Input
Amino acid sequence: MERTIRVLVGKPGLDGHDRGAKVVARAYRDAGMEVIYTGLHQTPEQIVQAAVQEDVDVVALSILSGAHNTLVPKVIEGLKREGLDDVLVLVGGIIPEEDVEFLKKAGVAGVFGPGTPTSEIIEFTRENVKRK
Output
């Protein structure tokens, strides 16, 4: 029997808006995945530690503050330091088109902006997660 995909939904930084993160978390849960939601105002280090402790397959970050080019690479670096190179990293929120390539070069597998259907995020996750 195949293990259920485990997704950590994180809100790094000072952004206090979590409606989108909660919508995505619920969509993952409704799709049969296990979801760990870290809550608001998490540091990259807290997100990485939660990913380690929960043995996740996916780290889905929601950022609306504009700090994505700083916070996301820190999360990815932390995951690599912990040996979690196989974790799929996704980013959602207000991400300017000109920053998408930078994030992908940093190790982000997918970037999803406002209005992205949750079905698209779920499908992308299923197609790209590396099973442990």
